[in-house]
Amino acid sequence: MEQTVSKSKSGGKSSIQKFGTALSGMVMPNIGAFIAWGIITALFIPDGYLPNEELGSIVGPMLSYLLPTLIAYQGGYNVYGQRGAVVGSIATFGVIMGSEVPMLIGAMALGPLGGFLIKKFDQAFGDKIKTGLEMLVNNFSSGIIGFILAVIAFYIVGPFVQTLTDVMGQGVAWIMNAGLLPLANIFIEPAKILFLNNAINHGILTPLGIEQAAETGKSILFLLEANPGPGLGILAAYIAFGKGAAKSSAVGASVIHFIGGIHEIYFPYVLMNPLLFLAVIAGGIAGTFTNVIMGSGLVAAASPGSIIAILGMAARGTHLGVILGVLVGAAVSFGVAALILKTSKAKESDEDFEAKVQESQNLKSQSKGQTAAAPTPVMAGEASSSQNVSKIIFACDAGMGSSAMGASLLRKKVKEAGIDVPVTNSSISNLTDEEGLLIITQKELAERASQKTPSAVHVSVDNFLNSPKYDEVINRLKNQ
Asked: What integer is the mean pLDDT of 189-198?
């Protein structure tokens, strides 16, 4: 009976994680567009820094047409490549024109739906098309399916999503008016450490924040998950009171977290002592409470959650409040974490920390609907083990956070060794198979990367912050 309950909970958690990953996977590749919209809004609306009626006219069309279409395109592409992207975009234009509110949520539904339907059509009829008619059938099938979805979206989905958006907006307004918004961090902070951070931020808070910012010029919702204060407090506590590898690595991790905006870096430190969940919750509540009192808000989503990005997106006149929200969140988190670390009887060994790093990586893989991969050989692939390396690519799921950090660390080592080999980062989905590649991934992503680039040399690491395998890569490059 207990096993059945356990499996049920695990399955439910996995389903939620997969759903959240799908939502964030549509928004994250388009964060640059959201930032551009935020900058234009902050500068050129009537209450902006440089009010300009002509340039301010860009704000509305970007929000109503560009952003939903980009989300839908990405959602369709994630399901079924270019054909899915086109059909998803056509369908979404129906929901855009069938409502009076920005259709970010509608785009998240119709983009993948369009990709799914055209995929099923191709699976059902692809092998039945007569030779010479492939292009004709492909073009007309995507056009007809897109047309039908657009009409349905215009008359049914648009009004439904508008009603849903209004209800959600009223719910958020009620929570804010009741002064209960800080309590949201009771759920947000633990969920982040279970690698639902992107799902919460980009899948839920960003669409609602965009709606609010369009009406009021700013939204506090952009700060609920992105506030780096609680994580900074945890790392500062480890710097002051930690032991072993956790203490020695916390300084570098705090820079990556606070300046680089890669919050995943502090998750293993919390997992190492589960009582620290109380510290991040307390810090999150304190930071949000401060932002509520100060009337803080951002004009658009800050991604990554770097203090630089957050201040860059801060609405006019709210910079002091945003800074205080971060500092108070960090101070409260530090105080609670320091008390826990000082009174904890558990001894933190280097092995414990490495185990929690691996546990954190396994949670990340589960959040992407994967299972934790078995260790991969340092230089995998007999066929390619003897080839000279002409390019190194550090690959992760999104190609933005951990891969960029790993590439930066390895690039520095390559330069110090006097080796002339370029080091870049990429998402696994954008990898292309070619000779001379050396691909570095985290262990849970190694299998996907090797399937995508079977001719490359593959290296898998546990901890992208400080892996001994980087030195093995350098030695290989020196000897080739």
From this structure: 71
Is 396 one of the annotated active-site residues of the chain? Answer: yes
3-state SS string for 3-64: HHHHHHHHHHHHHHHHHHHHHHHHHHHHHHHHHHHHHHHHHHCCCCCCCCHHHHCCHHHHHH
CB 204 within 8 A of CB 179: no
266 contacts 257 by C-beta, under 8 angstroms: yes
Tally of CB atoms within 10 A around 330? 24
Contact predicate 191/197, CB 8 Å: yes
Higher pLDDT, 244 or 107: 107
User: pLDDT higher for 196 or 61?
Assistant: 61
Residues 6 or more apart whose CB falls under 8 angstroms from that of 46 comprise 56
Considering only 245-249, 351-355, 357-361, 421-425, which range has the smallest mean pLDDT? 351-355
Q: Name the pTM for this structure.
A: 0.61
Dist. CA 322–CA 313, nearest whole Å: 10
Q: Catalytic: which of 395, 396, 438, 446?
A: 396
Q: Over 90: is that where the pLDDT of 357 sits?
A: no
With 0-12 CB in 10 A as exposed, 13-18 as middle and 19+ as buried, what is 306? buried
Q: Where are the alpha helices (DSSP H) in 319-460?
A: 319-343, 350-367, 402-416, 446-452
- Radius of gyration in angstroms for the set of CA atoms belonging to the chain, rounded to a whole number: 24
Q: Are 3 and 47 in contact (CB under 8 A)?
A: no
What pLDDT, in 10s, does the model give residues 124-152?
A: 987 788 877 888 888 999 999 999 999 99
Nearby residues of 283 by Cβ (< 8 Å), 6 or more positions away: 189, 229, 230, 233, 234, 329, 330, 331, 332, 333, 334, 336
Q: For residue 410, give the nearest of 472, 480, 479 by alpha carbon.
A: 472
For residue 452, give both structure tokens.
Answer: 């995508």
Place of tokens 């260790």: 375
